[in-house]
């Protein structure tokens, strides 16, 4: 095992500067989300400025919002909601989807047919609409949001993983494992998973972007994270009144979302590639 | 006058995925005279197709001509601007692709595509082009020449498409025709017809040709001169007869040796055990619902019986679609038969592998054709070989490592390969690992399903030799499935011939071509290309070649 | 072969119907899981138990969920869309004009963006690897990665706040002249076009690139065909199925985009109606709006599938 590891480390990897920048921004937001309470200059809920929609000043780096609260502190705390909820939802969606997808691909038969049909049908409900319907039915809270977002993105993850697994499943090495007498567990875990894990992780990243966008959209409509808490989408909503003045309070949360999603995309499109022609 | 084609100091660069440039053609000089056919012979990666494409002023994505000149009829294809190159393509130099099935646009009729050259270059009015196309179809011995053009590519068989692509190339009356392995994907009996048609139309059109192939025997039939390539360099050029009879370069000699494998060493007669090792009786298999007559909707195997004696090898030969690979899958339990019995060493086997006891699975191993898909690309060679050791024999730790080393020794691979991933091995090395994994189970019978078809001839010959050595060391039996009669003859004691899901007869290797055998067996025997340049012409249209199953086997 | 096409098309339509059934089931039960009693919610805290019980019976709330589902779906099928909880007006009446407004918005957006997006997508594929291609690709990724409301707010900031060309809000019912119509539509259409074009460009480019990588495209090039001819005669006919699919899928993004855009520009369409209905928990209205959206989506992808089947040369 140790020998195997060494040989893989010996392989060269090509790093792309765009990917590195993407990684740095993603890492920045991850750190901010974790350390927000330690860094935030003001308590999130405290009104610190007499003026509302204040401009960027030395004291309030990102201006103040419609109540005169410090935007920098709110953005930092908002990162917790946006990143945290999205991450939880996407992890849940991908875990469920990938597990079901691989199982369906390997077992086939009616299990595969029924599950695929059902999840395809679920997938044909536009995602924002699904969010609206659930919030209308159950009301909005953080656990409900996570569960809803996970349900919305499970069919996609399932479909993706299943398609990959079906391809791998037709490979002769899986047939060889079958006629060797291996069980379904070994085939899924040892033969199929290692061959689809790369694309699955990249897909998880893309899906994370979609979840962030959907969560922000729902919050923007007032159906996501509820006051007094606020994620970035909710901040755009509560400060939309500042739009005619071009207040930083409207612009900054949007930019925060864009910086996160675009950098995740940059990272995924430019993951370190293994160099195959090492024989030089 | 100068030659029609003069390639001087041609160098082509390719960009690897790390962005490094490597030279894949390293300074090649070649000439082709008017009306002459030059063959480019070499293995995959030798650069033969790259050189052929450079004659059209074309390189595949990621490649570029880095130096030298490619002069065709006085103009340097490497230096011309794109528009002038395009004007010469189809009219001066024409191209016949390896896979016509992929090179025809699926959404347009054959005729539209054949006469497209005339339309692009405004050579003649559409009606005249159509008439010319029908003439060519007739000359190429295509069935229904008047109407075949109205069909879509997927409605025409592979051998016919290949001939249609020749019509597509010749309609612009080019001075030079490039043949890019045009018969490689075809069955041997179809290959003969296509070769014959090519030869006839080339003689008539008086065009010069460049024929790219890895098969010396095929090239011997059609080429005037042969250039042997390796690693992007010309090793040897000479007249066909001279190359075949008196090769000077050792690589050429290795290629020649690989074409006609020496008959395998005779296996000791006393090795045969008391009862047969494998007995297959009246097996029926296929896909779809089972009809009242006990046949599935799409039958693939119809009542096939065969036996394999202990220590002996059975060959199964037939063309694509004859059911030989399906039979292998049935025996291995991958596709459970609809009816019939399979017994290993006298014990009946369950139809599906999942129901067979682990020990029965261990004793019967299958090795697949494509090592690329047969080896898990995410696992190191050591893990791949180690899994059957743990699974069947419960070996772990040091004992397992030692056994893996021994297996690598057995298939003549360096032990250091243990830590490599399959993607880092050559084709031949991968196939050896594939074999070693089967050996790890300590089987008694190994089913080899076309295991040499995807390999270059020299590498394939080495694998066949290895199989013989392993048999002597380990007392194995093989079922050797192939479309290559010469290969099967060199290693098997008995050979079953299959057509359309049926086994039509079983012969000893030496009996092929003998009178009294089945006409199809004789056809197969006659269709195996020989190194003799006169073989194709001497092959009269005898009764055997006209055997009716041909049409079915060609599609 | 003709019968095979008919079979595949019918099969596809049957699948769409089954999907619609599953979708309606999901929508109904997602909204029926409401914690607390609709009757109580409607009548308020002061309601007597008798009044609540009376309303429950009147609304069939005592019946098993599956019966209510059947009653609801039967009503939908016969055109009875139910009555709004919030203001006791028939849902059909509430939706009528609003739906027309949304369709107008969607139609204008489609007319504007489809030709532009297809053109840019095909051009990017033909000019693969050039600066143009890379700029287009980077821009589309950028647009796809940001929320729709960001595009909308940026448009407002640019055109209304800084340039002062356009009003920030739109009211379709106050349109009297062509000029006003333009001003009302420009911002929502612009925003929506951005959102769906990005998707369409990406998918079109991918479809054409795939067709151009096929051996038959190389063969055409080696017959002396110009790049234009290779694209128009060889790549495009084979990319037709995927391109139609791309258009249909992109148009389905309209459904998501329209929810945000109508809200932010205060456009009186069906999506705005639905968002408002969510805040008042007006279930019959929500259910009907949701079904309209899902029906639109299914219609789009089913048409795309059928076009793909009919345009498949192997089935000819």
TrEMBL record, chain A:
GO cellular component, one term: plasma membrane
PROSITE patterns: ABC_TM1 (PS50928)
One GO biological process term: transmembrane transport
The ABC transmembrane type-1 domain, residue ranges: 79-268
Record membrane topology: Multi-pass membrane protein
Transmembrane segments: 20-40, 81-110, 130-153, 204-225, 245-268
Matching Pfam families: BPD_transp_1 (PF00528)
Subcellular location: Cell membrane
Keyword terms of this UniProt record: Cell membrane, Membrane, Transmembrane, Transmembrane helix, Transport
Similarity section: Belongs to the binding-protein-dependent transport system permease family.
Protein name, as recorded: ABC transporter permease
Higher taxonomy: Bacteria, Pseudomonadati, Pseudomonadota, Alphaproteobacteria, Hyphomicrobiales
From TrEMBL, chain B:
tRNA processing is among the record's keywords: no
CDD domains: ABC_NikE_OppD_transporters (cd03257)
Domain ABC transporter: 10-256, 278-525
Compartments in which it is found: Cell inner membrane
Principal location class: membrane
Keywords assigned: ATP-binding, Nucleotide-binding, Transport
GO CC annotations on file: plasma membrane
Listed PROSITE patterns: ABC_TRANSPORTER_1 (PS00211), ABC_TRANSPORTER_2 (PS50893)
Pfam families: ABC_tran, oligo_HPY
Entry's Gene Ontology molecular function annotations: ATP binding; ATP hydrolysis activity
Recorded superkingdom: Bacteria
Bilayer topology: Peripheral membrane protein
GO BP, one annotated term: transmembrane transport
Similarity field: Belongs to the ABC transporter superfamily.
Protein name listed in UniProt: ABC transporter ATP-binding protein
Automatic annotation (TrEMBL), chain C:
Main location: membrane
UniProt subcellular location: Cell membrane
Membrane topology: Multi-pass membrane protein
Keyword Membrane: yes
GO CC, one annotated term: plasma membrane
Keyword Transmembrane helix: yes
Annotated PANTHER family: DIPEPTIDE TRANSPORT SYSTEM PERMEASE PROTEIN DPPB-RELATED (PTHR43163), PEPTIDE ABC TRANSPORTER PERMEASE PROTEIN (PTHR43163:SF3)
Protein family per UniProt: Belongs to the binding-protein-dependent transport system permease family.
UniProt protein name: ABC transporter permease
Organism, scientific name: Methylobacterium oryzihabitans
Taxonomic lineage: Bacteria, Pseudomonadati, Pseudomonadota, Alphaproteobacteria, Hyphomicrobiales
């Amino acid at each position: 095992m140790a020998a195997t590891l060494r040989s893989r480390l010996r392989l060269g990897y090509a790093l792309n500067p765009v990917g590195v920048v993407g990684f740095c921004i993603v890492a920045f937001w991850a750190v901010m989300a974790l350390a927000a309470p330690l860094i935030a200059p003001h308590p999130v809920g405290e009104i610190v400025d007499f003026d509302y929609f204040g401009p960027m000043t030395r004291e309030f780096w990102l201006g103040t919002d419609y109540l005169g609260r410090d935007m920098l502190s709110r953005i930092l705390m908002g990162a917790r909601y946006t990143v945290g909820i999205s991450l939880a939802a996407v992890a849940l969606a991908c875990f469920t989807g990938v597990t079901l997808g691989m199982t369906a691909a390997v077992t086939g038969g009616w299990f595969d047919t029924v599950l695929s049909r059902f999840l395809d049908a679920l997938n044909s409900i536009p995602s924002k609409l699904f969010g609206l319907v659930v919030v209308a039915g159950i009301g909005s809270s953080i656990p409900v949001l996570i569960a809803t977002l996970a349900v919305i993105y499970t069919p996609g993850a399932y479909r993706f993983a299943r398609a990959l697994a079906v391809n791998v499943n037709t490979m002769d090495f899986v047939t060889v494992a079958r006629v060797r007498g291996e069980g379904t567990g070994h085939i899924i875990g040892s033969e199929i998973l290692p061959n689809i894990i790369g694309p699955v992780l990249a897909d998880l990243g893309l899906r994370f972007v979609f979840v962030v966008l959907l969560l922000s959209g729902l919050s923007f409509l007032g159906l996501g994270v509820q006051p007094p808490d606020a994620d970035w989408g909710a901040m755009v909503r509560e400060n939309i009144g500042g739009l005619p003045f071009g207040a930083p309070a409207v612009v900054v949360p949007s930019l925060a979302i864009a910086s996160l999603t675009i950098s995740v995309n940059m990272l995924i499109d430019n993951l370190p590639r293994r160099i195959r022609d090492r024989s030089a | 006058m100068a030659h029609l084609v003069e390639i001087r100091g041609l160098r082509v660069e390719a960009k690897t995925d790390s962005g490094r440039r490597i030279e894949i053609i390293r300074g090649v000089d070649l000439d082709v005279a008017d009306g002459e056919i030059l063959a480019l012979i070499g293995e995959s990666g030798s650069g033969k197709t790259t050189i052929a494409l450079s004659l059209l002023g074309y390189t595949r994505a990621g490649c570029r001509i880095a130096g030298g000149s490619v002069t065709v009829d006085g103009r340097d294809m490497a230096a011309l601007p794109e528009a002038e190159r395009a004007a010469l393509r189809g009219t001066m130099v024409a191209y016949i692709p390896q896979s016509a099935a992929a090179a025809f646009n699926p959404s347009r009729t054959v005729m539209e595509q054949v006469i497209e050259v005339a339309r692009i270059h405004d050579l003649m009015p559409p009606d005249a082009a159509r008439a010319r196309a029908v003439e060519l179809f007739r000359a190429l011995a295509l069935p229904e020449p008047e109407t075949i053009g109205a069909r879509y590519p997927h409605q025409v068989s592979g051998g016919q498409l290949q001939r249609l692509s020749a019509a597509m190339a010749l309609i612009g009356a080019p001075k030079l025709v490039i043949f890019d392995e045009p018969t490689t994907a075809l069955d041997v009996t179809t290959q003969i017809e296509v070769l014959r048609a090519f030869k006839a139309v080339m003689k008539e059109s008086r065009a010069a040709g460049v024929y790219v192939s890895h098969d010396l025997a095929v090239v011997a039939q059609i080429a005037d001169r042969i250039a042997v390539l390796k690693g992007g360099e010309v090793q040897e050029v000479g007249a066909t007869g001279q190359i075949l009879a008196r090769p000077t370069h050792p690589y050429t000699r290795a290629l020649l040796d690989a074409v006609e494998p020496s008959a395998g060493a005779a296996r000791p007669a006393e090795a045969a055990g008391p009862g047969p090792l494998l007995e297959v009786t009246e097996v029926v298999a296929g896909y779809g619902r089972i009809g009242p007559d006990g046949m599935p909707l799409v039958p693939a195997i119809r009542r096939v019986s065969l036996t394999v004696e202990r220590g002996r090898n059975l060959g199964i030969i037939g063309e694509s679609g004859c059911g030989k690979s399906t039979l292998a899958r049935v025996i291995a339990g991958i596709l459970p038969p609809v009816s019939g019995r399979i017994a290993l060493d006298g014990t009946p086997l369950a139809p599906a592998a999942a129901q067979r006891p682990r020990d029965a699975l261990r004793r019967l191993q299958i090795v697949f054709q494509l090592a690329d898909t047969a080896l898990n690309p995410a696992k190191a060679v050591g893990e791949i070989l180690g899994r059957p050791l743990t699974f069947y024999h419960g070996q772990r730790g040091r004992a397992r490592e030692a056994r893996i080393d021994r297996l690598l020794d057995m298939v003549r691979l360096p032990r250091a390969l243990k830590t490599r991933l399959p993607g880092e091995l050559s084709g031949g090395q991968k196939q050896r690992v594939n074999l070693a994994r089967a050996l790890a189970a300590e089987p008694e019978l190994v089913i080899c399903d076309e295991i040499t078809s995807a390999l270059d001839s020299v590498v394939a010959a080495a694998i066949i030799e290895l199989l013989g050595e392993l048999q002597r060391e380990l007392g194995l039996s093989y079922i050797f499935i192939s479309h290559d009669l010469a290969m099967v003859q060199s290693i098997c004691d008995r050979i079953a011939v299959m057509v359309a899901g049926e086994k039509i007869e079983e012969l000893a290797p030496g009996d092929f071509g003998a009178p009294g055998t089945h006409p199809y067996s004789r056809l197969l025997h006659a269709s195996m290309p020989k190194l003799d340049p006169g073989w194709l012409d001497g092959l009269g249209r005898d009764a055997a070649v006209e055997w009716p199953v041909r049409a079915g086997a060609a599609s | 072969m003709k019968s095979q096409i008919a079979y595949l098309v019918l099969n596809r339509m049957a699948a769409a119907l089954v999907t619609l059934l599953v979708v309606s089931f999901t929508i109904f039960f997602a909204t029926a899981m409401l914690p607390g009693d609709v009757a109580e919610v409607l009548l308020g805290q002061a309601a007597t138990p008798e009044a609540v019980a009376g309303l429950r019976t009147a609304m069939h709330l005592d019946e098993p969920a599956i019966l209510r589902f059947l009653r609801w779906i039967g009503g939908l099928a016969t055109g009875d869309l139910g009555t709004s909880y919030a203001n006791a007006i028939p849902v059909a009446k509430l939706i009528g004009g609003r739906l027309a407004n949304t369709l107008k918005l969607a139609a204008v957006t489609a007319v504007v963006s489809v030709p532009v997006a297809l053109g840019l997508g095909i051009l990017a594929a033909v000019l693969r690897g050039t600066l143009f291609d890379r700029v287009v690709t980077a821009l589309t990724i950028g647009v796809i990665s940001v929320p729709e409301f960001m595009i909308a707010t940026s448009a407002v900031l640019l055109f209304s706040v800084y340039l002062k060309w356009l009003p920030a809000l739109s009211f379709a019912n106050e349109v009297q002249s062509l000029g006003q119509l333009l001003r009302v539509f420009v911002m929502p259409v612009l925003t929506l076009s951005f959102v769906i074009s990005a998707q369409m460009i990406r998918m079109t480019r991918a479809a054409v690139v795939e067709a151009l990588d096929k051996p038959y495209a190389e063969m055409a090039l080696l017959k002396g065909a110009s790049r234009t001819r290779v694209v128009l005669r060889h790549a495009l006919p084979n990319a037709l199925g995927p391109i139609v699919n791309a258009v249909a899928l992109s148009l389905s993004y309209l459904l998501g985009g329209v929810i945000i855009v109508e809200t932010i520009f205060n456009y009186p369409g069906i999506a705005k109606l639905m968002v408002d209905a969510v805040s008042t928990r007006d279930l019959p209205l929500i259910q009907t709006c949701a079904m309209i959206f899902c029906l639109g989506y299914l219609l789009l992808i089913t048409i795309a599938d059928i076009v793909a089947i009919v345009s498949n040369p192997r089935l000819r």
